[in-house]
Design a protein that fits this description.
The structure is a homodimer of 289-residue chains.
Chain A lengths: L1 H5 L9 E5 L3 H13 L4 E5 L3 H9 L5 E3 L2 H5 L4 E4 L6 H11 L4 E4 L5 H7 L4 H4 E2 L1 E3 L20 E4 L7 H13 L3 E4 L2 H24 L11 H6 L7 H10 L1 H24 L2 H17 L3
Parallel strand pairs in A: 1-2, 1-4, 2-3, 4-5, 5-6, 8-9
Antiparallel strand pairs in A: 7-8
Helix pairs in contact in A: 9-12
Organism (chains A, B): Rhodopirellula baltica WH47
InterPro entries (chains A, B): 6-PGluconate_DH-like_C_sf, NAD(P)-bd_dom_sf, PDH_C, PDH_N, Preph/Arog_dehydrog, Prephen_DH
Enzyme class (chains A, B): oxidoreductase
Chain lengths: 289, 289
């Protein structure tokens, strides 16, 4: 993107970075840092030999390992890019061995992680982060250097982090091309329940209402509205499980609004219906700027 | 589309066609018929002088008028492509003057229309139709010859039509490039409530759950799911008003499924949640073929 080429390149705030877990997100973090900070050394830990071979073939990183501590050894910063239920244990393991290492992650829910690490040594080094970027494709083979460009990267400090780790992690994430947004973990989870998790569930709900016979009559409206419902059911089950309380609140809020809609339609109140629809239209159009 | 060029061109089943109302749909009907049946004469009625000038400038039709009966005079078939609340009156007016004229329409709800015309002279000549095609753009200036290609065109006979009008209207709609689907008006309305109207309302519902402050954190899932919520609030108020009973049933059905989801999430039943999500995924993926 032109804005990158013309903006001054800040000096790298670290000499070497380890990526723990080389999927779509981990691979894209490596490629985006390579683009912006070409002098920074990159190592990775990947469990599968195929992924390790791919990472070297495509020069996504300089060195690959099959163990997290081997990848992190000698590094200034490590990004844990594994499924969210493995992040806390990995953070504790790495903090125990490398007391100077800045730790961060890509997990899509944050409250549980922050609670799990509270009071541990790892909490001083670990800066929780969630880059809001992705794709329906998974795996390092789909990694892209521009995946995070202008995408929100939410940092949710627990308050226990040492200041130098906050600074290092923030500069690192800025170097991926993302926009840094800082908020408490609980606010992040409540917001994502409404901006991401509930829309996914409503999309699935819309898909579930029709029979296969009706598919012959669907138009572009149904196809757009239900597009994300084709996503991986295991992944979304895990997300709902990690963020259950906030998602239950979001479901309750939407159920109450559905009751409002039902009353409006039942009463044939066209003025109220137009206002109900127009509020949605205004919000949706505000996102298109 | 290649399949059109290579398939044999059937002989036109009419010599001249009138389009009553030249918006996106009326204009696209004219252009698609021109492509397939170039020898057929095309007239149109449009209320606005600008639209009439545009229709002649772009040769969408051969002649334009400001009155429906002037456009339909001498024609074999007339397509009423006005807003749905004006179709019944126009059908009766044209049937009264032109007893041989085949009448059809593009209205997106059918039950009310069929009930309104029941027992009238017009019901013998009027073949209710709904081409499921559109665009977020409106007006004849966005008309396209390929708008109906391979799109469902639902014909909902009342049972009162004379056979020659059913045949003429069916051949006409096939010549636009669409796929003919025949079903009773009530089944059409109940199906569209689930395949089109409810998804639109759920898309609006998803948009309404977030505040403007949260817009900074939306990703592609929210953007896809809420895309149609940016549609015209007046148009959608009219659709809901026309198809109220079927939409109320669709809302009730989805509310019951939302209750099921809420119970599953509340109980932390990951197996049931995965099945719930997977059903949606299977249905959505079936539509991608």
């Amino acid at each position: 993107m032109a804005s990158f080429e013309s903006s001054p390149m800040p000096e790298p705030s670290c000499r070497s970075v380890a990526i723990i877990g080389l999927g779509l997100l981990g691979g894209s973090v490596a490629l985006s840092i390579r683009r912006r900070w070409p002098s920074v050394g990159l190592t990775a830990c990947a469990r599968s030999p195929e992924t390790r071979a791919l990472a070297l073939d495509r020069a996504i990183v300089d060195e690959v390992f099959d163990r997290p501590d081997a990848a992190a050894k000698g590094c200034d910063l490590a990004v844990i890019a594994t499924p969210v239920n493995r992040i806390a244990a990995l953070a504790q393991e790495l903090a125990k061995q490398f007391s100077e290492l800045t730790l961060t992650d890509v997990g899509s829910t944050k409250g549980g992680l922050v609670r799990e690490l509270a009071g541990t040594t790892a909490a001083k080094q670990f800066v929780p982060a969630h880059p809001i970027a992705g794709s329906e494709k998974s795996g390092a083979e789909h990694a892209r250097a521009d995946l995070f460009d202008d995408k929100p990267i939410v940092i949710t400090p627990s308050g226990e982090e040492l200041p130098q780790h906050i600074t290092a992690a923030t500069e690192f994430w800025r170097a991926t091309g993302g926009r840094i947004v800082t908020m408490p973990a609980e606010q992040h989870d409540a917001t994502l329940a409404l901006t991401s998790h509930l829309p996914h569930l409503l999309s699935s709900l819309a898909a579930r209402q029709i029979t296969r016979e009706m598919l012959a009559l669907v138009g572009t409206g149904w196809l757009d509205t239900t597009r994300v419902a084709a996503g991986d059911a295991d992944l979304w089950t895990a997300i709902v499980s990690e963020n259950r309380d906030a998602i239950l609140s979001a479901i309750e809020q939407s159920r109450s609004d559905l009751d409002t809609l039902q009353t409006i339609v039942d009463q044939g109140d066209d003025t109220a219906l137009r206002t109900w629809l127009d509020t949605a239209k205004q919000i949706r159009q505000s996102a298109q700027t």
